[in-house]
Amino acid sequence: LFISVINKRASALRALAIFPFPSKSHAIGIQHLFQAMARRGHSVDLVSHFPRDKPMENYRDISLRGILPSIPNSTTFDMFQSFNFLGMKDFVRIAGAETCDLLELPVFQELMMTPRGTYDVIIIEVILFFVDTLKIYSIFRCNKYIIE
Length: 148
Prior knowledge:
This is PLAUR protein. This protein has helices at residues 2-9, 24-39, 77-81, 85-101, 106-112, 130-134, 136-139; strands at residues 14-18, 43-48, 59-63, 121-124. It has one domain (13-139). The longest helix has 17 residues, at 85-101. It starts with a helix and ends in a 9-residue tail after the last helix. 42% of the residues lie in helices and 14% in strands. Residues 1-8 have low confidence and may be disordered. By secondary structure, it is of the alpha/beta class.
């Protein structure tokens, strides 16, 4: 009985998740979290390069597929040990400038015009300070409660 009373007072969240880094390994784990949220009645909008193959109730994919080249999921510890400055330049280009350039896309322009209060929570993958550098919290007109 107590649980049913709690459930009657609970409400579903409207969540926006932005995962701009084009690596499948970055998307897989978070997709499971947001799919679980959608199954529990929350409304989820997920911006990523790896949309689901099948639609799901309460879950909307905003696809960036094909806009940036996909980063292979084959990074090993040995690769990090031999990581040189030239490799860092490519990483910064992909994770920094190219990822930030995504904000110019129509899909992001539309999201930026979303009225304040549309989303209860905004979750953003932080790659090279994507959130702070671009002041994402002000672009989407939400409060600055960021946990990195």
